[in-house]
């Protein structure tokens, strides 16, 4: 009963509250000590003030006293603080639960081209920034000037390849707008092409005599299934295609699957071998309507590069898909393997006549 009375002094009469709570001088400021009992023992206001001082000392000593009306209900400060803390904790837990519930699921890490930084976030090397000043951005050049700039922008320690990139007004998702063909570069590619042949019977000897690097039948198919890919071109005879079909998942992503449109499925195997050795190049449009085509090496002469480039342009023009409508050529660029692109004038490129081969 005494403990409950102390916890709630307002339930006692002022004399009882005075009797149950004794002031502690060592923990209470002298300026807030109650008046002496001789001067205010008979005064109810002094007793109420004394009870208020003691209540404040029990809740939190040294806190300044806020005067309030005697008839206002007194609240236990410690209990109120605990209640507020519990309310804030409950609100925090509810907020965290809602944040967890609304948080998006973690995304999978990007791989391949998607993991590369965006173009605006990439940094160029000092070498690239220097050679980039040799040509004007977005300016269209004629073929001889562009080839001359192409050779000037190549300053690496190895011999770079010369590449052509043509954006066409076609959509390969339609069957009548697909483009896949080959072109014989008159001056070659400047690369050593390793040719493998899949055939059987008498054609094995023909392929070996024609200069094939690798020749085989079913045993070569088994080697490819085991991971053997040491060749640049794979030529197959028509009678071997049912057996080659099982290699589609391995050869398709690498661009090595034999195909009649690419000239790698033929009955005249010796001729196909000679063409690929001399510089026959396969090209096809990608899903964005762009043809990427190498047409030589930087150490070629200007005339040789122009001849090869125009041979590629004529081949793409001759193999125009039947479903292509309107303007066929949208843009054309050439560049070295490690250099900036040089834009070509489309009209001048189509009308240009290369020197005699």
Walk me through what this model shows:
By secondary structure, this protein is of the alpha/beta class. The protein contains 14 helices and 10 strands. The protein has helices at residues 2-7, 14-20, 37-40, 44-59, 77-102, 126-131, 143-152, 203-210, 218-225, 241-244, 248-251, 269-278, 302-318, 346-351, and strands at 140-141, 161-168, 180-184, 195-198, 214-216, 233-236, 280-284, 290-297, 329-336, 342-344. Strands 1-10-9-2-8 form a 5-stranded mixed sheet. It has a 3-stranded parallel sheet with strand order 5-4-6, sandwiched between helices. Strand 9 and strand 10 (342-344) form a beta hairpin. Helix 2 (14-20) packs across helix 4 and helix 8 runs parallel beside helix 12 (269-278). It is extended, with a radius of gyration of 45 Å.
Q: Give me the secondary-structure category.
A: alpha/beta
Task: Indicate the proportion of strand residues.
Answer: 5-15%
Helix content: 25-40%
Q: What's the helix count?
A: 14
Give a quick summary of the entry.
The chain has 357 residues and is of the alpha/beta class.
Attribute tags:
357 residues, alpha/beta, three-stranded parallel sheet, 14 helices
SSE inventory with pairings:
Layout: H1 2-7, H2 14-20, H3 37-40, H4 44-59, H5 77-102, H6 126-131, E1 140-141, H7 143-152, E2 161-168, E3 180-184, E4 195-198, H8 203-210, E5 214-216, H9 218-225, E6 233-236, H10 241-244, H11 248-251, H12 269-278, E7 280-284, E8 290-297, H13 302-318, E9 329-336, E10 342-344, H14 346-351
Helix pairs in contact: 2-4, 8-12
């Amino acid at each position: 009963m005494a403990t409950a009375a102390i916890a709630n002094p307002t339930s006692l009469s002022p004399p009882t509250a005075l009797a149950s709570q004794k002031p502690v001088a060592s923990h209470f400021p002298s300026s807030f000590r109650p008046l002496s009992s001789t001067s205010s023992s008979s005064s109810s206001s002094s007793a109420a003030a004394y009870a208020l001082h003691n209540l404040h000392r029990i809740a939190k000593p040294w806190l300044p006293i806020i005067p309030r009306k005697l008839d206002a209900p007194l609240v236990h400060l410690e209990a109120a603080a605990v209640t507020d803390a519990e309310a804030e904790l409950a609100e925090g837990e509810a907020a965290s639960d809602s944040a967890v519930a609304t948080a998006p699921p973690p995304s999978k890490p990007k791989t391949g081209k998607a993991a590369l930084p965006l173009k605006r976030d990439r940094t160029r090397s000092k070498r690239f920034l220097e050679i980039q000043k040799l040509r004007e951005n977005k300016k269209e050049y004629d073929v001889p000037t562009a080839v001359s700039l192409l050779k000037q922008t190549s300053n690496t320690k190895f011999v770079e390849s010369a590449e052509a990139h043509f954006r066409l007004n076609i959509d390969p998702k339609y069957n009548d707008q697909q483009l896949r063909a080959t072109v014989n570069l008159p001056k070659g590619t400047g690369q050593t092409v390793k040719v493998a042949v899949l055939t059987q019977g008498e054609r094995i000897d023909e392929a070996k005599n024609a200069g094939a690097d690798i020749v085989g039948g079913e045993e070569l198919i088994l080697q490819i299934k085991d991971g053997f890919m040491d060749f640049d071109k794979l030529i197959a005879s028509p009678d071997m295609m049912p057996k080659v079909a099982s290699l589609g998942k391995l050869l398709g992503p690498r661009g090595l699957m034999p195909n009649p449109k690419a000239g790698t499925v033929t009955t005249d195997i010796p001729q196909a071998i000679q063409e690929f050795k001399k510089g026959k190049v396969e090209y096809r449009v990608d899903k964005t309507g762009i043809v990427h085509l190498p047409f030589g090496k930087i150490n070629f002469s200007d005339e040789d590069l122009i001849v090869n480039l125009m041979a590629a342009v004529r081949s793409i023009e001759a193999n125009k898909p039947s479903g292509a409508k309107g303007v066929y050529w949208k843009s054309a660029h050439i560049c070295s393997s490690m250099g900036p692109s040089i834009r070509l004038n489309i009209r001048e490129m189509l009308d240009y006549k290369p020197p005699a081969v």
